[in-house]
Records
---
Amino acid sequence: MAARIGSGTVVSGLTASALAVVTLLALQARSSAHETTSTAGTPGASSSATATAPGKPSAKPKPVALPAHSGSGKRIVYALGAERVWLVDPAKPSDDRTFTVQPSPVDPLVGSYTVNRTDAGPYSGSDGVTVKNGVIFAQRGSAVIGFSSAADGTLPKPDPAKKTGGIRETLGDGQALFDFAPTGTKVVVVG
C-alpha cells in the first residue's frame, strides 16, 4: 500500500526548495558583486575587479604602476594627478594595495611627509561630513590635510568653495590605510 502525501506537505516541500534556490542565487550574486582581484605581492596592482561576460575567462586588470621617484621603504604614495594612493611595504608585499580617492579642494604640496595624527572616529571633518579612520599628514594654510572615509560610505565631490583638506576613500580602503599607517608612517605626494 502506497503512502499518501498530503497536499500541504507537498506545498511546504516545494516552498522550502524554492527558498533554498533563491537563497543560493542571492549569495552567488552577492559574491560576484563584491569580488575583487588580489593585489598580494604586486605593489602596482589595482584593487578593482574587472567584469567579464558569462562563460568567458576573466581578464586580469592591468596593474597600475607605482610612480617613479616615490621613495623607498614602507610608505603611502599619493599621486595628485592620478587621484590614487598606494600602500607600499617591502617587508610585507602581501599587504600592498592601490586604490583611487576623491581629492580635497586643497591639495598637499608635492613632497615627503609623515603621519602626525590618526583618529578612528567617527568625528566631524572640516567640511562638516562625519568621517572615520582619519590619517592626518599635512597642513596648507588653515587646511589640515589627510585621508578619511565618510562614515556613511559615500564619496561625494567636495565643495570647491570650502577650502578643506579631506581626501576621501571608500570605507574598505579607508580602514586598510588606517591600519597600515600609524603615526610616523611616511607619506610621499607626487604630481
---
Amino acid sequence: MDILIIIALIVAGIILFLVEIFIIPGISFAGIGAFVCLIYANYFAFSNLGNTAGFITLAASTLACVASLFIFMRSKTLDKIALKKNITSTVDNKAEQSIKVGDTGIAFTRLALIGIADINGHHVEVRSIDGFIDEKTPIIVSRIDNGNILVEKQTQTI
C-alpha cells in the first residue's frame, strides 16, 4: 500500500509539473502542487520504507520528471496546442511617408525627445534633435532616418 501511495504522488506531481510548464506558465497552484506531491512522496518513502527505498524513490522521481519533460517536448502534443498564426498586418504609415525634409509644423505635445507633432495636417510621432521642445513650438523636419522623423526648433519664420 505504501508503494501505491508513493507512485500516485509521483504521477500526480509529474502531471502537475507538466501542466505548470506547458499550460499555466508562472508559479501557480499546479507548480506548488507538483512540488508538494514530489517532496511528500520522497519524504513518505524515507520515513516509512527506509533510506534505501527513499533514495530509490528520489532517483525515480527525478528521472521521471526529466523523462516526462523530454517525452512531452518530443511528442506532437506541443504542435497541437502551439500558436501557428503569422502576423500579416502592418501599421498605417501613409502620413509619415508624405512628410519630407524641410516640412514645417507645430509640436502637438511636449517633445521630451519623442512626442507628437502636427506636420502637413498629420499627427505623427517625431524625435527632437534639439532636446526638449515645448508644445505649440514651431518645428522643422531636419531629416528622416529609417522611418524616424527627426525635428528641430524652427529658428526663423518663412
---
Amino acid sequence: MQVKDELLSLIKQLPEELQEEVADFARFLLAKRRSDEQAWQHFSIQQALRDLPEEDYSESDLKERW
C-alpha cells in the first residue's frame, strides 16, 4: 500500500489540470491492459484450436433440439 499512499499524496499536491492528466494516463494504462488481455485470450483460443479440423456449421447445427 505504500505506492498507493505515495501516489495519493503526490496527486493531492498537483494542480487540478495536472490531476486530470494523471487520471487520463491511468485510464490509458487500464485500456492498454484490457487490450493486452484480449490479445492474449485470442491467441490462447487460436492455439487451443490449431490442431482441430476445420468444419463448416450451418445455423441448424447450432440450434438445440428437444
